[in-house]
Amino acid sequence: MRIITYSKKDIPLIAGIIAKSFEVDIQNSVDKTLTLGNDKVGYRGDHYVVSLGEDRVRMPENENFKGLKCEIQITSLIAHTWSEITHEKGYKFEGELPKDLERRKNLLAGMLELADLEMDTYVESFDRYVSKMEQEIEKGCLKHQINSMSLKRFMEWKFPDISPQVFRDMDLILNELKLFGLRTIKELNEMVCLAYEQELRRVEWRSLDEIVRNILIINNPDKYFAQVWNPSMNQMNRKNYELYQRFNVDIDRICKDCNICII
Question: Contact at 8 Å (CB) between 199 and 159?
Fold first, then answer.
């Protein structure tokens, strides 16, 4: 069987699980990257020949597997793609390739290996960014650009009592924040007044989409309905309507101007 990972950095983690779960035949297991050496390119992956340990063989459901071995291959998605292409082409051709095709094959293998390394670098950089952002938001540092990750972390930090923390349409909310002209979490946070936080606790709002949208509307209703509001949305929930009234939004005028009915 073959286990395919998105990045090479996950291969050692999976190898550790295999080592704990099976008896590994070290002599017949192989790291294909090491067998290539430093001066060759091609398929890369870790291959483990394994069998069930004594404790698992004693289980009735595993009796038929006693003494049997199998091979578990672990490789990255890019290396797997290379393996499948060359394997499939190998069935259609025997003998040596023309020199120009052999050279192109080797160049492609080298490019894919570099892509694998760059993928690992990207994944590690992304993970570091997310970890740093989460730590900084938890400490009240809100300088980060608004994106799906930072907005989720901000809502968890700002409104910890709301559970579960789920957005119905993250893409829509991100677009509304962009149309409103907000770029950073700090800008959004500065628009949240204490009275609105108390309102959320009192009424127990649960829709994160509406919570963010209401922050914008309460802060600057005319700007929201001029720049963000979708004219095709000609209805407004009465709960929201009454909320805007409590925060002195001239919602009756806005509903009349935008042809919005209260339901």
Answer: no
User: For the chain, which residues make up each domain, given as ranges?
Assistant: 2-126, 140-262
Backbone angles phi, psi at 86, to 5 degrees: -70, -35
Single-letter amino acid, residue 125: S
Chain segment 173-216, per-residue pLDDT in tens: 999 999 999 999 999 999 999 999 998 888 877 889 999 999 99
Q: How far apart are CA 96 and CA 89, in angstroms?
A: 13
Cα–Cα distance between 118 and 111 in angstroms, integer?
10
Please state, in angstroms and rounded to a whole number, the distance separating the CA atoms of residues 189 and 182.
10
The amino acid at 21 = S
Compute φ and ψ for 254, nearest 5 degrees.
Answer: -65, -45
Q: What is the pLDDT of residues 99-147, one digit of tens each?
A: 887 787 777 777 888 888 888 888 889 889 989 998 998 888 899 999 9
| Structural tokens at position 236 | 């407004």
Which secondary-structure segment (H or E) carries 58?
none
DSSP string computed for 124-192? HHHHHHHHHHHHHHHTT---SBP-HHHHHHHHHHH-TT--S---S-HHHHHHHHHHHT--BHHHHHTT-
Give which of 42, 56, 46, 125 is closest to 90, Cα–Cα: 42
| C-beta of residue 221 within 8 angstroms of C-beta of residue 260 | no
